[in-house]
């Protein structure tokens, strides 16, 4: 069989991809996954809302399908995620009468959720994103003012790690976040990680989501971030890599009528250069023992979550494979070393 990313990077780190059960039904996508990747992350199906839609109802089917596929093909699985402010069911924050639950009650529910999910996949999932995106977007604030935070204060973060560790002491436990290379955000993530380490919370690693662009991050920002987090004794992975051809925008909006979504030669050239630079840094950081994995967020430009986020109706082209599942020039940059 033709070599893939997983083969070129065999001595560096596993190369993963985010998937849905639907992709695993499509022969073209299955062929590409098996040729290129040796790790899977469920794109949505292990998040609390999808997998635990009601207090007494679990929707294991889609998550099981991904784990079964991985087992059948000897792929690793990263679990994503156990505690987040999005795709979280409303029931978890409410009493039966509709009032807000107490802190003690919410932590009990968080415990029971984490315990059930982590134990179900024990031995089959080697790493978990335990807490996702707990840092505020506003640079002047520390933690995000989510329902978790409003009800529990910052304790939910440490507790989530303790619950996950108790359920599977062998799993590698991650804090995961985006824009971690921006200096102001990097400092706040560092502050959180340091607090957790100082309190002997069982955290092993940090995930840089890696939703990057043609201009962000710079090589220096990327190296500095990985090395600063690693200085705490944590491993680092890039957990959700894609390189948007548009500038970063946080807020959702509709595509403007006059707005082009052409994938220009200039965008393609800049994107190839970004990917080449990122993977050079990844190889260096892996050899230094700091970086232990890279996962792409979606398989190919046939489908990306960025096609509808944050701009609805604008096609993006953020990955290494095109809409027909063929390697793009950026792919050849990544495997040429
Ligand atoms: C995204 C999925 O890709 C979409 O399908 C879904 O509609 C929203 O969530 N950060 C994360 C991921 O940690 O879970 C998000 O995934 C992308 C941003």
UniProtKB/TrEMBL annotation:
InterPro entries named among the record's database cross-references: GH, GH10, GH10_AS, GH10_dom
Keyword Cytoplasm in annotation: no
Record lineage: Bacteria, Pseudomonadati, Bacteroidota, Cytophagia, Cytophagales
Reaction(s) the record says it catalyses: Endohydrolysis of (1->4)-beta-D-xylosidic linkages in xylans
Record keywords: Carbohydrate metabolism, Glycosidase, Hydrolase, Polysaccharide degradation, Signal
Protein name as catalogued: Beta-xylanase
SMART domains: Glyco_10
Domain GH10 residues, every copy: 1-337
Top-level class of the enzyme under EC nomenclature: hydrolase
EC numbers on record: 3.2.1.8
Active-site residues (renumbered): 240 (nucleophile)
Family: Belongs to the glycosyl hydrolase 10 (cellulase F) family.
